[in-house]
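Entry type: protein chain
Record version: 2
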Amino acid sequence: MGRYVIRRLLQMVPVFFGTTLLIFLMVNIMGDPIAGLCGDRQCDPATAARLRKEFGLDKPVWQQYLTYMGNLFTGDFGTAFNGQKVTELMADAFPVTIRLTLVAVFFEILIGITLGVVTGLRRGRPVDTGVLLITLVVIAVPTFVTGLIVQLLLGIKWAVIDPSVSSDARLDELIVPGLVLASVSLAYVTRLTRTSIAENSRSDYVRTAKAKGLPRGRVIRRHLLRNSLIPVVTFIGTDVGALMGGAIVTERIFNIHGVGYQLFQGILRQNTQTVVGFVTVLVLVFLLANLLVDLLYAVLDPRIRYA
């Protein structure tokens, strides 16, 4: 196991450098950040030259990347164009988005897996058909439409919740936004769990366990569910990074000042340091989540061994 973890960590190194380089290049070619910094008025040449030198934009892109990566290993993610350290923006934004993501993952696990198990064990029955139709509708409707409808009904028409989240972004305020954020992923988890349960319920090891006279609940928990959850864990693990990075729409709808909000503002203002810094951390989150998923395989299925 130890050698496997070390090997996986070494494999992450070229992936990390490759993705950060790609992101850095894409962000730097999306427009002139100095033009965005000056606003509607065009900067005079002297001011533009001074700003480019101040932020290191007068150097070639490859040199800017090497400088950025060198500073990165010292914990310096650069400075935004407004003079604020990117690490300060991260300290404010990431705790909010992490809470929102945890709420979303909780709903994925609780509702998605529960519905998947129920429908998988009752394949072809009315409850199975009904859940399949509902999940199909959820997948087909874009998240921003779902969010706006929920905000309109619960926040404005019925006044059950506050239409926007406060600056503190308390956990109880993030329940509805978290459910909106998790809606599409929750539908996929439900369908994936259903398919896996339905297929594995016809496997030889399940029939053998039933033939031994084991209680139905134990067969489901100890044999059927553990093996069926492997593809579901894979999806949820990779979805963590996607939820954190894809929270832009949900955070904009509910006025949540998290990672998505900061990324949106950075892209809107062409603030390259902010965008690259936040996306770099999201890449690390995605890589670590994938490693954790691989390690969980051995917990779910004892037959899996890592050399």
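Comment: The mean pLDDT is 83.
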